[in-house]
Amino acid sequence: MTSSSKFKYTIDQPLPEHIPVKMLAPSQETFTSSALFERELSTIFDSDWVMMGRAGSIPEPGDYFTAQLGKRPIILMRQKDSSIKAMGNYCLHRYTQLLTGCGSTKNIVCPYHYWSYALDGQLEGVPNKQGFCPGDLEEAELVSLACEVFMGYIFVSLKQDRVPVSTRLAGLAEVLSNFGLERYEDHFVEHQDTWNANWKLICHNFIESYHVTYTHKKSIGPTNPTKAAEYGPVGEPYHTVHSNSYAADHFPEVFNTRLDDSEKTRFYVMGVFPNGLIAIEPNFVWWMALEPVAANKTNSRWGVSFLPETLKRLDEPEQFIQDTVELLVTATSEDKEMVERMQRGSMFGAEKAGPLHAPLEIHIKDFDDYIRRQMASA
């Protein structure tokens, strides 16, 4: 069975029995409550796997980027053995944040008192060491977190006993098996992009196809119209996936020989719970990893990755990269405008919930069901 056989056209066909006729969006308070936001950080971001970004953005030993796991500052560091390690981003001495932003280093040095650590977090050097009890410094190391790379993406968890990402996302990997996401090359990453909106609103926007024609008039709307939207497998516990087929006069030139005829003409859009968003077409991937900051503020780390076969076959690969990034900067800004307007509208505080479109917004229900399960299990 090809991945494309898992999708169904939605506009002019009757709803199957497993699609609810009536669905409701969460209440406005869901996106404005500071108390609820704090609960989400503890019950979701402190308890589950969280997507942080692309492994290819830190390709060499010593390459790193910093991130937030809920409220917790962390470091993602490429190791000498080519693995990636996630560590607490604070000095063991007086808790100073060790690294900021992204870059490359031979070791980690605290800017406050110059305590130094190896790339794997082992304490290596302490100035004026004789002033400390020797036993306090032996075998000291930065806190390690569970870390897994899957389909080219880095996932981190504060908990060490979670089911592996490769297990929980096996169904998604099957759908995308012909693309080979782990092979895509990372050519653009924006680590700091502040959205004045609740993180769940950004997820909702990304995983529904109802808005594409109307919001993305200057970018992907004409090429991937809402009328060509399809929903994917419904009720998956840890992900959603739908597609927007290209309009016939916008079919891309395809260089991935493993794709079937339908896969060559589709733009797949995925939500990886709780905070990962991925859109893939035959030649590139557009992704986001959301970092909740406050009930009404979210940092989006996002980027664009490219199929290496495409870049090798094009006469002007750098121009293709530039044009694609510019297109997706426009699309992202269109999304941001509408999501921030949803946030402002939610400030009214109405109790009545809005209706969801069946089936173009069915995956919002899947995401909200995940949130409810996580909150109930705390």
Features:
378 residues, Naphthalene 1,2-dioxygenase Alpha Subunit, Chain A, domain 1, 24% helix, globular, 9 helices, nine-stranded antiparallel sheet, 2 domains, Rieske Iron-sulfur Protein, alpha+beta
What would you note in describing this structure?
It is a single chain. By secondary structure, the chain is of the alpha+beta class. It folds into two domains: 3-48 and 164-377, Naphthalene 1,2-dioxygenase Alpha Subunit, Chain A, domain 1 (Alpha-Beta Complex); 53-147, Rieske Iron-sulfur Protein (3-layer Sandwich), CATH 2.102.10.10. It has nine helices and 21 strands. It has helices at 34-45, 134-137, 165-168, 170-175, 199-206, 212-215, 308-313, 317-346, 362-377; strands spanning 8-9, 23-24, 50-54, 63-69, 72-78, 84-88, 102-104, 108-109, 116-117, 123-125, 144-150, 153-157, 185-190, 194-195, 229-231, 239-245, 266-272, 276-280, 284-294, 297-306, 355-356. Strands 1, 13, 14, 15, 16, 17, 18, 19 and 20 form a nine-stranded antiparallel beta sheet that branches. A hairpin with a 6-residue loop joins strand 8 (108-109) and strand 9 (116-117). Helix 1 (34-45) crosses helix 9 (362-377) and helix 5 (199-206) packs across helix 8 (317-346). The mean pLDDT is 95.
CATH topology of the largest domain: Naphthalene 1,2-dioxygenase Alpha Subunit, Chain A, domain 1
- Which radius of gyration do the C-alpha atoms yield? 22 Å
Distance between the termini: 38 Å
Beta-strand share of residues: 25-35%
* The CATH class of the largest domain: Alpha Beta
Uncertain residue ranges: none
Q: How would you sum up the global shape?
A: globular
Helix content, binned percent: 10-25%
Order of helices and strands: EEHEEEEEEEEHEEHHEEHHEEEEEEHHEH
CATH superfamily of the largest domain: Naphthalene 1,2-dioxygenase Alpha Subunit, Chain A, domain 1
Count all strands and give the number. 21
- Named at the architecture level, the CATH assignment of the largest domain is Alpha-Beta Complex
pLDDT averaged residue by residue: 95
Secondary-structure class: alpha+beta
Query: Main sheet, how many strands, which sense, barrel?
Result: 9 strands, antiparallel
Integer count of domains: 2
Number of helical segments?
Answer: 9
